[in-house]
Amino acid sequence: MAQDESNPPDEVFTIERRGELTVITATEALEQIEFGLEETVSELILETLKHQQQPLIVIDLSRVRYFGSMFLALLIRCWKLVMSRGGSMALSGLDDRSRELLRVTSLDIVWPIYQSKREAIEALQLD
Known about the structure:
Blueprint (H helix, E strand, L loop, with lengths): L12 E6 L2 E6 L11 H13 L5 E5 L8 H16 L3 E5 L3 H9 L8 E2 L2 H10 L1
Parallel strand pairs: 2-3, 3-4, 4-5
Antiparallel strand pairs: 1-2
């Protein structure tokens, strides 16, 4: 499958280490990711987590207005990996539509959800 140069998989997320904590920020490109590239995007995220003991992960969605089942599957994969390594994961910056999607799928009870990235970072660092 040809890759759309305006939406390369490594531009869907930015990954930033802050000491023991990793902040994964989804960009607007997540809303338009080309079908078939989801596995490449998943590997970018999961590979980062595989090398951490007790990972502390904040996934910031403040720049995203829409995501679908592919991203939900990635969140679940991340969460399972984080939990298997004794870590914690939180979400931040969800809009009302995204919060409703998580509520309908009952995933809002799986992950702590914070208004801002800052709140999520502070909460995980206190745990």
